[in-house]
Design goal:
By secondary structure, the chain is mostly beta strands. The protein has one domain: Beta Barrel (Porin), CATH 2.40.160.50. The protein has three helices and 19 strands. The protein has a 19-stranded antiparallel sheet that branches. It starts with 14 loop residues before the first strand and ends with a strand. The N terminus is likely disordered.
Length: 419
């Protein structure tokens, strides 16, 4: 979950100041236990001795302030809401001051022994450049994990830049674009077998008040044809396999997801068009230290069957949590399809688990327009620091610095691992 807006070096680059108040507004420090995705079997709720020996940001803050923490044996109960709030403020050259409050509301719908932890996440953000982002992302499990409800609802008022279509567009081709955006994505997945879920959903993407600032002789102007509102409304078919026992910081697991979307004028869409999204993640522990993990991520989107609205085309940084393409501004590359691959090595720095680090590299391929040929690979790479915010949920504050092509670079923030 991002808590800052990455931008290109020439326009925005660095986050010059940032303060984090990472004291959870919760009754229990153990509020965010691991989220399991196993098939109808007793999740592993036992805390290992290593958890008690490690420290997180709250432990250190309590010690510094001479505050006595509540005992670790505090009991979690079904139906009880456990709330954590993480405010942050910052400044970027292009966005001016930004402020956000990342909040996690966690709860169990049934017995802890048979049901996974449900979460509702939000991280509303305001920029002095008049950007407003209000997302609400939810994962809710019914009793015995029989059904998994997934929700992604959001509102954007988003003055930003677009750089044209294709994988070889120069940074100098930037074009200012203002618009507002409402997204509704709601799914229900039924447990089919161990770690396997399948189901249906509905997705609405409504872009309105679209306004191009400057000449219309751009890829956006030619493709969009003056439209000030676009609607994409369609049904989803979703199949996923997920062996992660903790989605905040997976250690040794595999995740695979295939989602097919059919947008139809019968459901209010401007055009009939289709998309296929395929995501794969693999996590490999490479030593006895649980914090040393080699991780791989592949995100792929393909559109076909009709004209896709410009702002619905696959684009850098427009994955679910806006984490794809560290080293580049969101929307840097855009096209009819996108193939993305990233690898990351995560390692511990301190013995108490408070600090860790990462090195990462990624690449993205987008076909040129209007030729639709794949002949450009755009790489990115970087390093990052990890600060443990909660040792029970294994949630880290991620601070990364990434580089891309043409001098592109910037700082990126996230709550929980990037993938």
């Amino acid at each position: 979950m991002p808590i800052g807006l990455p931008r290109e070096n020439k326009r925005t680059s660095l986050l010059l100041a940032m303060s984090l108040l990472a004291l959870p507004l919760s009754v229990l420090k153990a509020q965010q236990d691991s989220t399991s995705t196993h098939h109808k079997h007793k999740p592993n709720r036992k805390n290992s001795d290593s958890i008690y020996k490690q420290e997180d940001f709250t432990d250190v803050a309590f010690k510094a302030l001479h505050i006595k923490a509540k005992p670790d044996t505090a009991k979690l109960k079904p139906g009880k809401l456990y709330l954590a709030v993480f405010p942050a403020i910052g400044y970027t050259i292009a966005n001016g001051g930004t402020a956000t409050v990342a909040a996690n509301a966690s709860f169990y719908t049934a017995s802890l022994d048979s049901t996974n932890l449900s979460t509702i996440l939000t991280y509303p953000l305001y920029s002095l450049y008049h950007q407003i982002i209000v997302p609400v992302i939810s994962t809710v499990w019914t009793k015995h994990n029989d059904i998994n409800f997934l929700g992604d609802w959001r509102y954007y008022r988003y003055p930003s830049y677009t750089f044209g279509l294709g994988g070889n567009t120069p940074f100098t081709k930037e074009d200012q674009l203002n618009y507002s955006y409402v997204k509704v994505d709601q799914e229900a997945l039924k447990n089919l077998a161990k770690n396997l879920y399948g189901g249906i959903g509905y997705n609405l993407d409504y872009h309105f008040l679209i306004q191009q600032i400057g000449s219309s002789e751009t890829d956006f102007g030619q493709y969009n044809q003056g439209a000030t509102t676009t609607v994409s409304s369609g049904l989803l078919l979703h199949l996923k396999y997920d062996s992660r026992t903790n989605i905040n910081n997976p250690k040794d697991a595999f995740f695979g997801s295939v989602s097919y979307r059919y947008n139809s004028t019968l459901l209010g869409s401007d055009n009939n068009w289709q998309s296929l999204q395929v995501e794969l993640r693999k996590y490999i522990k490479i030593s006895s230290n649980p914090n040393n993990v080699l991780a791989f991520w592949s995100w792929n989107e393909f559109t076909y069957g009709g004209k896709v609205p410009y702002l619905n085309l696959p684009s850098t940084g427009w994955d679910t949590y806006a984490n794809m393409g560290r080293g580049y501004v969101q929307g840097r590359f855009r096209g009819t399809s996108l193939m993305y691959l990233e690898s990351e090595y995560r390692f511990g720095i301190t013995h108490n688990g408070l600090l860790g680090g990462v090195v990462f590299a990624n690449s993205q391929v987008i076909p040129n327009w209007p030729v639709y040929k794949y002949n450009t690979i755009n790489p990115g790479y970087g390093v990052g620091l990890r600060i443990k915010l909660n040792r029970y949920s294994d949630t880290n504050l991620c601070i990364d610095y990434g580089w891309g092509t043409e001098g592109s670079r910037g700082i990126f923030f996230n709550l929980g691992e990037v993938f």
